[in-house]
Amino acid sequence: MNNALVIENLNKSYANGLKAVCDLNLSIKQGEFFALLGPNGAGKSTTIGVITSLVTKTSGKVTIFGNDIDTHFVKARRSIGLVPQEFNFNIFEPIVEVLINQAGYYGIPRKIAQESAEHYLNKLRLWDRRKDSARLLSGGMKRRLMIARALVHHPKLLILDEPTAGVDLEIRYSMWEYFQELNASGVTIILTTHYLEEAESLCRHVAIIDKGRIVEDTSIRQLINSMGEEIFILDLKTPINGQLQLDNLKIHMIDSTTIEIELSRETTINELFKILSNAEIEVLSMRNKSSRLEQFFLNLVSGHDKVSERSGI
Amino acid sequence: MLLNEKVTAYRTLLTKEVLRFLRIWIQTILPSMIVTALYFVIFGKLLGEKIGRVEGLTYIEFIVPGLILMTVITNSYSNVVSSFYSAKFQRNIEEMLVSPMPNYIILIGFMSGGVARGLIVGLSVLLVSVFFVDIRIFNITVLISVCILTSILFSIAGFINALYAQSFDDISIIPTFVLTPLTYLGGIFYSASYLPGIWKDIALFNPILYMVNTFRYGFWGVDAPLLKSYIVVLVIIAGLYLYAISLLRSGKGLKS
Question: Domain check: are A156 and A63 in the same one?
Answer without folding.
Answer: yes
